[in-house]
Amino acid sequence: MLANKLNLTPEEVLFLKRFQDQEYISTEEDNDKALEISEMLANEPNLTAEEDRILESLLDQIEKFEAEHYPLDGESTPLSRLLFLMETNCLQETDIREVLGSPSITAAIINEEREISKDDAVKLGQRFNVEPTLFLVEN
Length: 139
Hints:
single chain, 139 residues, mainly alpha, 8 helices, 66% helix
């Protein structure tokens, strides 16, 4: 069971049940809980199909809530998305070097001297459990 696997508190289990019934996040408190649970799920290896569905649903709802409550002044970029994910996962540039396999490529991306390639986007997508297109420039 998911609650046992992630060591969820009774409050978090109730939140997940309520979330699955209402299918939306309506408060800052709900959003914080959804972020916490989705982070736990994202860091779990070998998610079941049900766990993956829950994670995707939580991420969709978090995105909708935050887009409504925290609109960006400007457009986000692949680099800003990477930096956001690094910050929320407490990662440093050295951690991304391990993912990309090259200190020079990592530094060039972080210093905005190079765009993220499709291959790099796939590696980053796997690391953060997100779609690789998140790291690519939209045309």
